[in-house]
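Hi R.,

As promised on Friday, here is the backbone we talked about, encoded as structure tokens. Could you run it through your design pipeline when you get a chance and send me back a sequence?
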């Protein structure tokens, strides 16, 4: 009965994921958010992992973009867990867009379900569990991050919270192993998520310190076991990032963090259609800075705190204090350098130095409020119709669908010529954009999934210095000295997009066609041309 009940709950979570991304499920292979370069980047990451993992896992991080820079996959999130989920589709020949979209929907459903499992295990109420799951999976923050698959696959956070609490409460060995597994799950998805989880675990241990000390002989060995297993499991993905940080100086300064921090006004901002149409539009300036949980969740959270404090058990009260601390920490840390706390943690906890968007700590705030709301609804115990209404209201407040998607017509066939090209290939796409316009390389990165040959261009969360060095010369293509610089860098093939040149685009092709060192291989849509660059 319990398994059937949970299967039913998961089915509801899938239906809600389809609803909140509507109409994506109608044409997941054709609809896309490829008007955003971050989507194209994450489609490429999933595809690269799916391509490389079964062929050469030892060189997984030696991705094909930003050639000749090393560890290019480490310039952004690894997304290994979502990629493995989409692997069977990719290996069956599905396009990167189709894989991304289906993995996106699955990520929403899994996050809702994982959060629901936590509340169900605490309260036994399925409807309260679904309300909490809806609140954490479908909210103004996640629904403005469809371009960031790592911002949707966050189910490891509630599962890690459940596991650490069971270690504290019961000294469970199984929970210790589970916690290590969940931390690895997060690390193999996103560096941000494992930092969030670590902060959350620290807060649990702090707020539940009395319990930990009373059962120290049991709890401390379990924590040590969990830490040892997690460290060993995470090392293979940690080391490339550490190497990239040292070799590429890939560390974030507090000045950069300041630009990607939340504001108090962001906690009044909501992207939900009902809210934007009525009161919230004036607060909504930046989708990353948007964390209003919804009126229903706010009220249920307060109800949860009051009812638990009045008539709940001592465990319930400790749980409320724990969640309140997590919510407060998420809010404060999301403000970044606006408070001294972020700077202090930045100095004493080195993994923080790899983060740029402090605002995303708001996930901890949203998780804590979702769980408090679930506790509140379970403690209130309204009748079936009222409880169902709460579920409806939570999802109605968050709803942004229907979304407008961009049509994906496939990667031009001309790129497949590179896959069949004998001998070494190093591709440069023109125009070769400077660092300030590097997001325009998004289509180039996605198109490389058709051939997987080394690509001089790139787009990621970090841009290596070598890219700018090449861009300083390649940007002036088709000038002779720019082409000489390309040859010196080892470029063997050039894909030219005439319509993308901002100035004198009509003069680009005539200048190339009169050069004997450019051999035309093929012509694609919009007049793009692939050339073999002769020595």
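Update: got your reply. Pasting your designed sequence below so it's all in one thread:
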């Amino acid at each position: 009965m319990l398994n059937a009940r949970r299967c039913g709950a998961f089915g509801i979570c899938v239906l809600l994921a389809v609803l909140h991304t509507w109409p994506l499920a109608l044409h997941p292979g054709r609809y896309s958010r490829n008007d955003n370069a971050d989507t194209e980047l994450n489609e490429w990451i999933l595809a690269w992992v799916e391509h490389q993992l079964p062929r050469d896992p030892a060189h997984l991080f030696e991705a094909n973009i930003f050639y000749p820079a090393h560890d290019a996959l480490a310039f952004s999130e690894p997304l290994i867990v979502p990629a493995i989920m989409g692997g069977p589709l990719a290996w069956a020949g599905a396009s990167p867009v189709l894989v991304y979209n289906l993995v996106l929907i699955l990520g929403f459903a899994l996050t809702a379900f994982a959060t629901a499992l936590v509340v169900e295990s605490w309260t036994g109420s399925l409807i309260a569990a679904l309300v909490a799951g809806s609140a954490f999976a479908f909210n103004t923050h996640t629904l403005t991050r469809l371009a960031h698959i790592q911002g949707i696959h966050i189910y490891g956070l509630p599962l890690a919270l459940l596991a650490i609490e069971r270690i504290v409460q019961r000294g469970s060995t199984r929970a210790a192993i589970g916690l290590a597994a969940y931390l690895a799950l997060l690390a193999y998805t996103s560096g941000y998520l494992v930092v969030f989880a670590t902060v959350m675990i620290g807060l649990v241990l702090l707020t539940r310190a009395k319990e930990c000390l009373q059962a120290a002989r049991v709890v401390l060995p379990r924590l040590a076991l969990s830490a040892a297993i997690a460290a060993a499991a995470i090392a293979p993905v940690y080391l490339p990032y550490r190497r990239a940080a040292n070799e590429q100086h890939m560390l974030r300064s507090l000045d950069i963090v300041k630009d990607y921090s939340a504001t108090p006004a962001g906690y009044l901002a909501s992207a939900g259609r009902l809210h934007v149409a009525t009161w919230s539009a004036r607060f909504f300036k930046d989708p990353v800075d948007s964390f209003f949980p919804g009126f229903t969740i706010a009220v249920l959270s307060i109800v949860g705190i009051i009812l638990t404090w009045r008539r709940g058990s001592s465990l319930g009260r400790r749980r409320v204090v724990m969640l309140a601390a997590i919510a407060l920490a998420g809010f404060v840390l999301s403000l970044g350098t606006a408070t001294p706390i972020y700077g202090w943690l930045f100095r004493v906890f080195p993994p923080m130095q790899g983060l740029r968007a402090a605002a995303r700590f708001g996930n901890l705030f949203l998780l804590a409020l979702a769980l408090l709301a679930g506790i509140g609804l379970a403690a209130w115990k309204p009748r079936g119709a009222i409880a169902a209404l709460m579920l409806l209201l939570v999802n109605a407040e968050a709803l942004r669908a229907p979304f407008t998607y961009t049509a994906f017509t496939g990667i031009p066939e001309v790129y497949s010529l590179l896959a069949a090209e004998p001998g070494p290939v190093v591709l440069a796409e023109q125009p070769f954009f400077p660092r300030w316009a590097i997001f325009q390389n998004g289509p180039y990165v996605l198109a490389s999934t058709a051939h997987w040959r080394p690509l001089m261009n790139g787009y990621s969360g970090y841009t290596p210095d070598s890219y700018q060095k090449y861009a300083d010369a390649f940007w002036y293509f088709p000038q002779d000295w720019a082409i000489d610089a390309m040859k010196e860098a080892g470029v063997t093939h050039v894909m030219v997009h005439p319509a993308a040149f901002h100035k004198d685009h009509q003069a680009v092709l005539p200048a190339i066609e009169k050069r004997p060192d450019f051999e035309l291989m093929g012509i694609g849509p919009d007049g793009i041309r692939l050339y073999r660059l002769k020595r």
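One thing I noticed while checking it: The CA atoms of residues 228 and 503 lie 57 Å apart.

Thanks again,
M.
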